[in-house]
Structures
1.
Amino acid sequence: MHKPKKLVAGVLVLAVVAWLAPGATPAETIRIGYVDPLSGPFAATGENGLNQFRFAADRINKGGGVLGKQLEIVPFDNKVSPQESLIQLKKVISDGIPFVFQGNSSGVAHAISDAVLKHNERNPGNRVLYLNYSAVDPALTNEKCHYWHFRFDAHADMKMAALTDVIKANAKLKKIYVIGQDYSFGKAVAEAAVSMLGKKRPDIQIVGNELHPIGKVKDFSPYVQKIIASGADAVITGNWGADMISLAKAANEAGLKVPFYTYYAASDGVTAAIGAAGVDRIRLVHESPAGNPTAPKAAAEYYTAYKKLHPNNDINQPRIHTGLNMLALAMKKAGTTDVDKVAAALEGMEWTTLNGDQVVMRKDDHQLLMPIYISVHTNKNIIFDFDNSGFGLANEVRVEREKATLPAACKMDRPS
């Protein structure tokens, strides 16, 4: 007995729909890849970053989305490994995701940046845009710059210039110990510290300049003992995540009370680990002002809403909000998600951050230019603490955008 033609046709349609279903999502949403550590020693950092991206995307979606579609943040666990990151990047590309954010580890950033450049050269009809929100090796927007990479954080030299100005002004400091993670960012921090202090304060002696394996040191006591033995009266470190927590704990246990000048000594467990011992002693350079003793209304509302949703996390990277919103604005201005047109729209783009700062994406090297801040670890007048610890950051220094800007050393090849 023959089945009715309409029934057969209906079955075929359903079969086709079922077959296409897994691939239907890209048409319904604008998918954005997030490649960062979601397991291993730096998982807490990656998970908090993912939460912040999803929170920022949700705000954009509630405001109507982009081009009539909702943003979807798709996570990929790279275990903070360059090799694993390349595997995850292949998944991003094979899934048809045109935009990818990454921030933790400049070593990872170099691997992704190189791979994106090669892919885009070979596949002009299927390009990918790499959006770097936190990997700050200066080389990424200098000698290793390229058209398909944009950075939304101040790079290590911009931050070190601000830190060394503060150190220069403190006549009591005579001996500095530099310690960091043994990869491109840690090396960049050490090189900048030695070079800039040599010019600004030639009387300062670098009594230690040490790199340690990233994510593998469980006990930093031997390193702290070296710092103590050196007679250092201050420490500079770019350590982040688990390595910053372990260094802080070892310093506290050994009673090391010298000032620390840092890049990432806050939140994700670091503030709690530092505790009372770090009050007025630990300083942090960053791209956004601390929320204490006051925060602009927009920032305060955003931080409060996030904390209500994620009571055990903090907004410690406002640049995530900046980066995602600038991408959304670029898509709106381009009127498309086409990577070539979105990249062109991002060049030279200006944006007002949650904190009211005017930032601009420099066309020459795709480095976001911004004011830079230095804050101090404290428990005084805290409105927004970190790690639910009662401790947080208070603003001390603001470096205006014009002064924080360093020359571009990028020679960029642009697509025809």
Note: Residues 1-26 have pLDDT under 50 and may be disordered.
2.
Amino acid sequence: MARTLFDKIWDAHVVQQVKEGPTQLYIDRLYCHEVTSPQAFDGMRARGLKCFRPDRIFCMPDHNIPTHDQDKPIEEPVSKRQVDALDKNALEFGLNYFPIMHPKNGIIHVVGPEQGLSLPGMTIVCGDSHTSTHGAMGAVAFGIGTSEVEMVLASQCILQTKPKSMRITIDGVLSKGVTAKDVALYMMMKMTTSGATGFFVEYAGSAIRSLSMEGRLTLCNLSIEMGARGGMIAPDEVTFEYLKGRAYSPKGEDWDKSVAYWKTLKSEDDAVFDKEVVFDAADIQPMITYGTNPGMGMKITECIPNGDTPSFKKSLDYMGFKEGESLLGKKINYVFLGACTNGRIEDFRMFASIVKGKKKADHVTAWLVPGSWPVKKQIEAEGLEKILNEAGFEVRQPGCSACLAMNDDKIPSGKYAVSTSNRNFEGRQGPGSRTLLASPLVAAAAAITGVITDPRDFM
């Protein structure tokens, strides 16, 4: 029987099938951060267990760390306690660890691919929903709970029920100003945030293949926001070129053997998916959200649609918007560039391309936060920091930052933030904050005009 890409990787990692139960699946890579791992390590300690394969486990703090003065002690007590616990646990259990200020530290979903730790054909898990990001490498990657983190620490395996398969095909050429973030927000607008629940999604089609590796990582990152268990893209020359020479990528003969195997990682022509969805790239435009879930989005030139559910009305009330309203020209207060969604070098290049030679609006507070130290170094090396500084922006130190209200970077109540992160739930960026999800191009245009602006006006 013809198999999908997901089938091939899943089947290659099955240890055993529990009778009338889940699959015991071998895990190639476990990532741990400071928020979802403490109880897992406590459980290991209580049972007197050591990690089964510590070389397969990589740890780093990212959610709670400040994005300035990282060389000083963390002031916020809860954040300090969580980061200190990860320091202790990684050392005690002998795990690979990139602490604060380590040259490889950053957001775990940025660091994995850029270091060559996330490779095609792998199974990858982390106690974080956006682990789906790593599926862009041609891997089966998904988020797990803290008890499952403990399971993988102890056995390098996990019990999982195999999800259904979905293929989303987007053919055609993406228009000017349309990024991978817009593609994802467009799909969520069409499918809603539950449209892929129960499925593992493979993205296919000419528009997907045209995306850079950074774009693919953004797209797969947002799979979880459609309810999917994960998202993935078959590896190709774009993937191989991105991975070649990275710190943990295979070298020499191992590289040649790996690429030969990776080239087999694609769905067979007659493979059958449980569900097929098709979109036309020509219909996608720059997007922005207006509500309190990522599926409440629209093309930036459109008006807020009508809705008759109580939750829809509640969402608009929270945001201070009305049905039929255009958001173009709406005053904003904050701009956030970063997160595991859009904190990579390509995102900073896009932002800089819009603001070059211009000035940040005086009333706008902008947080530009690279996803890792290597990204920050590259921003400096390419001269992007100089462009950004001249336009009135500051590049901060790496971390999850204003994606979520777990560190100092919080949006004040009632203020509007155009954010390149992944979620716009009530209070996600701080109690009472109002989040409008968008691409780096839309964020940049808002930062210099002070209002929601179509970035194509500057292109």
Note: The radius of gyration is 21 Å.
3.
Amino acid sequence: MLPQIETILKSRTPIVSTTEELAYPGYTHIKHARQIHAWAKKAKVAVLSTGVNPGFVMDTLPIALTAVCARVDRIIVNRVQDARSRRLPFQQKIGAGMTTEQFQKQVADGSVRHVGFTESIAMIADALGWTLDRITDNVEPKLATVTTSSEFLAVDPGYVCGIVQEGVGYRKGEPAIRLHMEAYLGAPETYDSIEIEGSPRIAVRVAGGIHGDIATTSIVINLIPRVLGAAPGLHTMRDLPLPSFFPGR
């Protein structure tokens, strides 16, 4: 994305992106983040990457919930989705219809996985002032036990119907931040949940989950006024004022 970002910033145009790695690049792409920040400062405009995940469900929302805590020991976020209702590119991204061998090959080359767990974990840790020992990000296939289908494809038993992915941030040798996602055709329930272990303990569950496609487009549009009003430079969701629905005038 760097060449596109550079071209846009040369025209002195602010950017709201959905590039996952750009949502919190200070942990994984420090050099690129500094370059984009310098370009944006020179152009006197702001740059932000956001979305539903990363950008909200598994980072911004848990961070906001900790504001009422006197102590936080551990954060666990679960996102489970029945992928039958999602668009075809999403179903392909989670490996639906592949053999196990095809799935593992595409996991190895990075084409099948959810991108953003590392960025979300780093954002949460920085917000809480935690120094992490390491961050892991593991991907496994979800295999169909019965024939299941969507509008776009059908999956027979033994084939991959989706993905199970878990990212963990370790602090002092213990898992302190755990992000768990299951997205597969035929999931019996779709939901998002956030658990904060501490004082007080907080457990939030969004029945039906936050719709990935609608939420992604909405948060991008709703953040435009925040980006237009922000200081020049590269920003993250941690930097900007509290986001909200913005109907326009």
Note: The longest strand covers residues 71-82.
4.
Amino acid sequence: MNAKTAKTICIAAIAAQAAATCAAKPPAERMDRSRLLVGAYCLQANARTDAHVKAIRDCGVDFIIGIPATDRATLDLFAKHGVGAIVNNVVPGWWGGNGERAGKMREANPPEKYAAGAAAFKDHPAIWAVDIGDEPSALDFPYYGDVVRQLGKALPGMPLYLNLYPNYASVSQNTGAQTINQLGTPTYAEHVEAYCRSVPLDYISYDFYPYMADARGTDVFLSKMYDNFIVVSEACRRTKRSFWYIPQVNSRNGVAPTSENRLRFQANAALSFGAEAVTWACWCAGWWVNNVLDAQGRQTVQYEKLKRVNAELKRIGPQYMRFRNVSTRFVGFPANSPQNPREKFDRVEKLDFGPFKGLRASNGARLVVGEMVSRDPASAERALFVTAADDPADGRPQSFEIVFGVDGGGAKAFGGGGAIPVARRADGSCAVRIASCQGVLLAR
């Protein structure tokens, strides 16, 4: 036996041992939701080689949505490299689309189809969850509740994945071209409430892509982005659900590739509202252009951008996940900014929360601040997740300080690069440096 053959056998044995260890864990434990999770959508067939899957792991992506459960070779590679798969082709798929099929899911996909799919399903250590649909109408939520309960019995312990519309989906009040009601309710808030009432899943996931238009249009979409965050995060707090968010790494046809700071802002803003999973759209071609890989499976300029942003999320994740979001405040936002949310929101010039007093930006810049408490009920520790929201379009990024007082001293700060020095100013207040679109966790 030569050295190359021996090395190959050794690597195969290690991979088999790792897969066997993972296989002993139920799917819910494979998806470790105590961590801040980073995912992505879409993996085309020409991007399922060993090198491609390793590059997913190297980019800081924990899981991919849209892998066929029958593609065992790709699942084997996922297990080898420690990537999770949210699989399709197990039970009937469903997409709400433009709303023409709203309320017709039971007719198209009766319970016996789900029973047949569950009976034929074969588990694999790389499978983290089964995809059961995307962007359904609220008219189908009651049946989705039945499906979740049915699959809970047929596939015990297997997490199920369902994603909702964003708030720019059409509703009954829309006019002109939007003549079909996608949401199935008069308002988006009622759509989310209907989901919480009917679908017994312990999270809310939705996608929202703010960078789809020119500068004036971007202001409109940023306002709606905040509205969407407000509605979903409040529903998650009220119903004790986790918040999963899908931002864009891609862009519309004719629009330049999404900048690194725009990626950073989307992720950090979601964390200011308590997101526990960030799932990028898209890794491969799924919709639009300028995805992480091109149509030939080659890395685009988006790969290195996303790798840097994901690395920041991974560094701050362990500290961030020690806490849970209880509210979100808008600090320093002008009264009539076109980027302001239209939903009711808390706008303050300076923020007081727990031991933190008078928090603001040194230059008056806008901050989105998540107020957080320890997940340990025995701990009185409090935290703030601060996102610099002064330049979400990444037109003129800058650096400035977050200034605040803290009762008892001893505040700690963490960012995408790790621990950040907390400076003591002459007046006794504290200061932490931040840059546009960055996020900082303050803990005391």
Note: The chain has two domains: 18-320, 323-443.
